[in-house]
């Protein structure tokens, strides 16, 4: 290179490709409506009995103070431990934190019931860092929802609920919330599944998403690309405690109805039928002559309940309510719960091989579900008989009603269906049985009618259930 000549440098790499659409515009619009919820409660510090009896060893005493949470050292993210001790035991202390979102301009907001259930004082932190006091308007533990109201603060940016019936598996969603107290955190993913039942309650119908959701996201919204709330973060599946891409949202349709009730009256009043129900398996459907496994099998009608007053009995299959098909026991619980107490509904039953309809005046769902009980569970007499084709040894019950199972052949059809010693067989195909002859006759009648199984009513631990057992054809 000649002297005085400047070197020529190559241009930096720059690749021009089609820009992938992002979520920035959406997040910018909805973030002001999302808040962090801080919860304080009156907690009693751990008792100090025995602490003064420790040896006079400074290192040992410091260890016990730190172990029991009384030290001043910072916790995760430098936060002070909530157990710091002082002499004012009545002062509310932090017990929980979560997320929420405004649903009205005047400061109503939604979060999870489990976020606020242990609290006595509530603070809402807005997207711009402003802290506002709030009060609980109402809670609904059955759906894990709560409504709070901010005191003052002017007008708030708020969001609407989406029509979640239009949500499809594979749709993009964006979750905004307060994981680990960090606040204003945005994650994205897709709808992974719908109608999930995770055993949280009788109205489980969760939307599953794979957007990362962690502790502190509870009560926060999941948005569609139109900025509408399709679900409320309420639970995660996590072996480790952190996100593994499986989160569950309360659907907007459920939340919208519950929130409206909480804003009006502070509680949710649900219709009550008062029957214990169980799913219908293929064997049970066969034993009852049903063409499908849809519906809910009544295992018992609770005393003085609306269902019992209307004539619903154990062995009935509820197939419709007001002309709407019942797909499963969960479906029935949601349908009945959606009606107001006092509402009169037509309940269609499958009974004795045909449909019947009864009119039921629904009651009010009790605060805790009542259980049917049988106080007179008898002890078995000494003499035993065999139901050899089922592998069951039975005896007459002490009160003469039903047969007590005393032994089960582990390789039998009875064992395969979950029948256990101590179970009481009270009926077969809706016919009461008091000896083995009654059972054998019911099974023979089933064979004559072309059935492959019979429906056996079992009492166990003061509750009823049904099992379908196969019949032998001669």
TrEMBL record:
It comes from the Bacteria. PROSITE patterns: PDZ. GO terms for biological process: proteolysis. Substrate binds at residues 114, 144, 216-218. GO terms for cellular component: periplasmic space. Pfam families: PDZ_2, Trypsin_2. Residues 274-326, 390-462 form the PDZ domain. CDD domains: cpPDZ1_DegP-like, cpPDZ2_DegP-like. It is an enzyme of class 3 (hydrolase). NCBIfam families: degP_htrA_DO. This is Probable periplasmic serine endoprotease DegP-like.
């Amino acid at each position: 290179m000649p002297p005085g000549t400047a070197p020529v440098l190559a241009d930096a790499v720059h690749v021009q490709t089609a820009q992938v659409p992002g979520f920035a515009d959406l997040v910018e619009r909805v973030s002001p409506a999302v808040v962090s919820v801080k919860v304080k409660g009156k907690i009693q510090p751990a008792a100090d009995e025995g602490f003064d009896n420790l040896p006079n060893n400074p290192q040992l005493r410091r260890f016990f103070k730190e172990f029991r949470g009384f030290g001043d050292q910072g916790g995760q993210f430098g936060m002070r431990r909530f157990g710091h001790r002082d002499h004012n035991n009545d002062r509310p202390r932090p017990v929980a934190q979560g997320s929420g979102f405004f649903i009205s301009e005047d400061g109503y907001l939604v979060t999870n019931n489990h976020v606020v259930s242990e609290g006595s004082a509530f603070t809402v932190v807005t997207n711009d860092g402003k802290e506002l006091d709030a009060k609980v308007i109402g809670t609904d533990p059955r759906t894990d929802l709560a409504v709070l109201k901010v005191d003052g603060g002017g007008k708030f940016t708020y969001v609407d609920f989406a029509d979640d019936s239009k949500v499809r598996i594979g749709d993009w969603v964006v979750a905004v919330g307060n994981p680990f107290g960090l606040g204003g955190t945005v994650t994205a993913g897709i709808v992974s599944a719908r109608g999930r039942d995770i055993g949280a309650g009788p109205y489980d119908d969760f939307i599953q998403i794979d957007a990362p959701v962690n502790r502190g996201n509870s009560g926060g919204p999941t948005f569609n690309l139109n900025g509408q709330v399709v679900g409320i973060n309420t639970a995660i599946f996590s072996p480790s405690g952190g996100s593994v891409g499986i989160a569950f949202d309360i659907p907007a349709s459920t939340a919208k109805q519950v929130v409206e009730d909480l804003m009006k009256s502070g509680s949710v009043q649900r219709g009550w039928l008062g029957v214990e129900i169980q799913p219908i398996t293929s064997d049970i459907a066969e034993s009852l002559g049903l063409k499908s496994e849809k519906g809910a099998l009544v295992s018992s009608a609770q005393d003085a309940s609306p269902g019992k007053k209307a004539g619903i009995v154990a062995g009935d299959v509820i197939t419709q309510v007001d002309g709407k098909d019942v797909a499963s026991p969960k479906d029935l619980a949601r349908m009945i719960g959606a009606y107001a107490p006092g509402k009169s509904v037509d309940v269609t039953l499958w009974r004795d091989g045909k449909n019947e309809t009864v009119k039921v005046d629904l009651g009010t769902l009790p605060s805790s579900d009542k259980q049917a009980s049988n106080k007179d569970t008898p002890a078995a007499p000494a003499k035993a008989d065999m139901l050899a084709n089922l592998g069951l040894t039975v005896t007459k019950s002490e009160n003469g009603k039903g047969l007590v199972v005393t032994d089960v052949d582990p390789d039998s059809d009875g064992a395969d269906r979950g029948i256990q010693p101590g179970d009481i067989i009270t009926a077969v195909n809706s016919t009461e049985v008091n000896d083995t002859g009654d059972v054998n006759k019911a099974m023979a009648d089933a064979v004559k009618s072309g059935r492959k199984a019979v429906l056996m009513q079992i009492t166990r631990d003061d509750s009823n259930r049904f099992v379908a057992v196969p019949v032998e054809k001669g």
